[in-house]
Amino acid sequence: MNSTALSFDALERAVAALPDNGLSALRRAALEQLRRDGLPGAREEDWKYTELSSLIEIANNWLDQGAALPAPSMRAAPDAIDATWIRIANGQIDDDSITGLPDGISVKRLSDTVPELAPAGRLGDFNIALLHDGLHISIGQDVTLQRPLGIHVCDEAGDDSVSQVRINIDVAPGSVASFVEYQVSEGEADLYSNSVINLAVADGARADYVRIQNRHKRHNQTSHLTVGLGKDARLRHTSFDLGGRLVRNDLVVDIAQPGAEADFGGLYLVGDGQHIDNHTRVDHRVGPAVSNQEYRGILDGKARGVWNGKAIVHEGADGTDAQQSNHNLLLSRNAEIDAKPELEIYADDVKCSHGTTVGQLDEAALFYLRTRGLSRRDARRMLTRAFAQATIGRTPVEQLHDFLAGAVDSRLRELMHEGDQ
Amino acid sequence: MLQIKDLDASIGGTEILRGLSLDVSAGEVHAIMGPNGSGKSTLAQVIAGHSDYEVTSGTVTFKGEDLLELEPEERAREGIFLGFQYPVEIPGVNNAILLREAVNAKRRHQGLDDVDAFEFLKLAREKMAVLGMDPQFLNRGVNEGFSGGEKKRNEILQMAMLEPSLAILDETDSGLDIDALRAVAEGINALRSPDRAIILVTHYQRVLDYVEPDHVHVLSDGRIARSGDKTLALELEDKGYDWVREAASA
Description:
Structural class of chain B: alpha/beta
Shape of chain B: globular
Number of domains of chain A: 1
Low-confidence stretches of chain A: none
Number of helices of chain B: 8
Number of strands of chain A: 19
Strand content of chain B: 25-35%
Mean pLDDT of chain A: 94
CATH class of chain B: Alpha Beta
Number of domains of chain B: 1
Helix content of chain A: 10-25%
Number of helices of chain A: 7
Mean pLDDT of chain B: 92
Oligomer: heterodimer
Strand order of the largest sheet of chain A: 2-1-5-7-9-11-13-15-17-19
Shape of chain A: globular
CATH superfamily of chain B: P-loop containing nucleotide triphosphate hydrolases
Strand order of the largest sheet of chain B: 6-9-10-3-11-12
CATH architecture of chain B: 3-Layer(aba) Sandwich
Largest sheet of chain A: 10 strands, mixed
Structural class of chain A: alpha/beta
Helix content of chain B: 25-40%
Radius of gyration of chain B: 18 Å
Strand content of chain A: 35-45%
Largest sheet of chain B: 6 strands, mixed
CATH topology of chain B: Rossmann fold
Distance between the termini of chain B: 33 Å
């Protein structure tokens, strides 16, 4: 149990006050489930390093004050990313953004369907219980999207608030689609955003998914992305965590059909007062199939990072190739990373490996750059940037590279400036 | 240009240089030879400002300034260039970008504007052609996956772009085949001018067939045991380093 418990009476009132629609029964069921299970606590292995108490406090404050969803402020998505943007602001869907979409993309509100919502742990129940509405996005059969579909999640915290995002995405057989999830927030009050996204990539389909989190530094996020891969389906995924205070991202990849390929990874830049946790899990239920993950972290000041990569090769999943690596650059003595690769193998014919490194900038390279006239600070920045470039370079949606390079540069400048203080 | 007086330097408490003195004037090429462990590379690293080496006594002045007070990057901007014996591989740092940043760091120090990107590339390509380098090397990571010879050519390219007042080339000739050696020597000779000085740190006489030194010094046990003109190098090649050691202890 958490030292801070969720206030269930207030939660129940909030659930009852939500609009009565196709989600009502699911909300009530999720509430009951949550009442039995509670939210994850630090005594659990998967939550050992990431304490949710501060988020529960924000939730309780918000629930006590009537659990209002502030009016959505419609902010423009970044111009630099050429995408078809769907927007969810303060947990509310922007209707204008889901009409007139290009051919091959259909979007429905979850409340207008009979939604099937896959379990996503206790935060998934918390998500459903308080869900205003969500989306079901379908990419039609044999469609190749010309532009990425952008999911712009923006929150503005005038008062303490909590918002929920829920999206199901189906990519039909033979389709090729790319997605950009862009989560940002503003406002000086406390905020906790909780998103659950399910991506089903059907037989022979290909999905590229880039997640960018650049929240205000006092705002918090938990996110859960589950990807199911069909026969010969392919996922390429890269994430960037630039902002936020307490951030926990879970990525679950489920390989239930042979021939699937999952390539994923991410970069987290963590500075003073930030705690960023990336948990991944890949289930190889059949073979042959390939998964390859590479995460990188740059931590400065009193930063805290967590990476936990789990690969499970189930019985009979012969021909599995599962690789994982995690590299961390600590720019200050006060920064801390908990890195843990986990391999569970129950099949015989498999190829698996993992590698984790935690290190500092290479002194020989720093000296070399300084003998070329670069200041120590510029040399440090150049080497740090080179470390980050490996993740930018592997990001699937190529048109994002310049945008990401700019965003990473600007965050690194802040981070390393904070570190110099 | 460079005056070294009674220099003692150590690394990790082990004394390497013991009372080394050397005077290098503008326009001169000095060759510093000596057996392994005699302190040749230490001298190069101390002049460049490596913090692992501790100067325990003596002075080093460069253009009349106390060099030992300056950070490595300040020394570089003042016109000192060290060609590394083992150039560092830096994956992810683009060779062209480093080259431009290095040139701009020096220009800013001199109160000049940054180089024009187009002119810069044009000049770099010209210099590369002289060194027999494929222009593709500009787009690669610094020394990343370069062969030994390619790394040394890259050092000479950096030197050619930076136009230092004082270049210290630490065994730049080692491990080169004859074509690479000629290209590197050509790069060094192109830099020779009445207002510049070059210190060639080398184990072998071979490079001196291509770059003719004004002075040759032999280092032994951390100090200069013998100095002479280019004939000293030939004599060394003939008699070996033991001859100098014996002469020094006699």
